[in-house]
C-alpha cells in the first residue's frame, strides 16, 4: 500500500497533555497511568492523522487519501475504520478519554486532546490534487 500515510509516516511520538502516541509501534499511553495500549495498524495510522492536527476536522476524502492513497474505497470502509478506532479508544480507561466526533456532511474530529504548537495540518492540497486527478 503506497499511501501518503506510509510515505510520510512520522516515527516521532505525538505527545499531548494527557496522551503519548508512538506512530512506529502504534502504542498509546497515558501520562497519568503506566498502562500502554497497542492499536491495530490501521487504527494507529488513523489516530496519527487526527493527532497531527488536533481539533482539525478530517474529511472523508482526506482520510481516504491518507490511508489508502489512490485506491477506490467506499464510504462504508471509512465508516468501519472510524468504528474500529472508536472501539479501541473506548477500551482505554483514562480520566480524559479520546473520542472521535462525527460532523455530518463535513467529516470527523478528535476530541480530548489539546493543540500543540508543532501540530501540522493534514496534507489537504494533496487530497485536492488526488481528487482532481481521479476525475481524469
UniProtKB/TrEMBL annotation:
DNA-binding region(s) in UniProt: 9-112
UniProt cross-references to CDD domains, sorted A to Z: trans_reg_C
Signal peptide start-end: none
Protein keywords: DNA-binding
Pfam family, one: Trans_reg_C
SUPFAM superfamilies: C-terminal effector domain of the bipartite response regulators
Keyword Transcription regulation: no
Protein name per the record: Winged helix-turn-helix domain-containing protein
Organism of origin: Alteromonas salexigens
Amino acid at each position: 500500500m503506497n499511501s501518503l500515510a506510509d510515505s510520510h509516516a512520522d516515527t516521532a511520538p505525538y505527545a499531548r497533555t494527557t496522551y503519548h502516541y508512538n506512530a512506529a509501534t502504534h502504542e498509546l499511553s497515558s501520562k497519568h497511568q503506566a498502562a500502554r495500549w497497542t492499536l491495530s495498524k490501521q487504527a494507529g495510522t488513523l489516530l496519527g492523522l487526527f493527532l497531527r492536527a488536533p481539533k482539525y476536522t478530517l474529511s472523508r476524502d482526506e482520510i481516504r487519501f491518507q490511508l489508502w492513497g489512490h485506491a477506490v474505497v467506499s464510504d462504508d470502509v471509512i465508516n468501519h475504520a472510524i468504528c474500529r478506532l472508536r472501539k479501541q479508544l473506548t477500551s482505554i480507561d483514562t480520566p480524559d478519554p479520546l473520542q472521535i466526533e462525527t460532523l455530518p456532511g463535513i467529516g470527523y474530529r478528535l476530541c480530548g486532546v489539546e493543540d500543540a504548537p508543532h501540530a501540522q495540518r493534514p496534507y489537504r492540497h494533496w487530497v485536492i490534487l488526488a481528487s482532481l486527478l481521479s476525475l481524469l
